[in-house]
Amino acid sequence: MICPDRFLATLPRSDERDAEGRRNIAVLLQYDGTEFLGFQRQAQIPTVQQTLEEGLERLLKHPVRITAAGRTDTGVHAAGQVINFRTTARIPEDRICPALNSVVPKSIVAYAAAQVAPRFSARFSARSRVYYYVMATGDYPSVFTRRFTYHYPWPLDVAAMNRAASYFRGNRDFRSFCVEAGPQENTIRTVFLVRCRQRRGLLITVVHANAFLRGMVRAVMGTLIDVGRGKLAPEDIERILAARSRAAASAAAPPQGLCLARVNY
Fold this sequence. Notes:
This protein is α+β, with helices and mostly antiparallel strands. It folds into two domains: 4-116, Pseudouridine synthase I, catalytic domain, N-terminal subdomain (Alpha-Beta Plaits); 128-264, 2-Layer Sandwich (Alpha-Beta Plaits), CATH 3.30.70. It contains six helices and ten strands; from the N terminus they run H-E-H-E-E-H-E-E-E-H-E-E-E-H-H-E. It has helices at residues 4-9, 48-60, 93-101, 158-165, 216-229, 236-243, and strands spanning 23-31, 67-68, 77-87, 108-116, 128-136, 150-151, 170-173, 188-199, 202-209, 258-264. Strands 1, 2, 3, 4, 5, 6, 7, 8, 9 and 10 form a ten-stranded mixed β-sheet that branches. Helix 4 (158-165) crosses helix 5 (216-229). The two termini are 14 Å apart.
């Protein structure tokens, strides 16, 4: 998660409006994804997008459609999600977060907002994204962290997991690690870092890439866990990538351990 001041410093802030006279507003927010059916608006509710759009429409008195940097899945959290939307309303920038927080559930918190250049898109202007996957490795789960960690009390070979993680780095085809990819869909992504580290009863995996496919991080984590259990060798990652089939990789890790931590612009 990045601090609000750092986030605001990375944005192309501007007083310019689009051709329809609308301001383009970027917002940094966090949410507990436990009770949402993912980010993206869909027939089933509630979703984070639907909740935010309905809240913004109450404030701004006109229809709103937001764009997000990452469309997280059901049960996945965000500590540094970024959205943008356009508005003709005159609400000052410094009032947007307090006003939005007053009309959305407490599981969503907006904590920085700014007017940005009309061309800015939370999704397409992003240079990279960082996810954390957090596993609690103690004998028993904690009632205080169970919504945000995957409890896994069995031994794992973390050194082997990190050797396997090195195979994901670079410009690779991740078709084996995504769901619902069409035959013509570009499944190549550039991964800058995958690293597992142990800290105070937690195993935290950081995954940093230019962009992610649907279900990609959870599939990567499920496969790394199988390496840690000894069911796969680190070298098997090359074979799984080359297969270009979701069936070649392991089952996805549970959603509650996953968090969109930061978006870089």
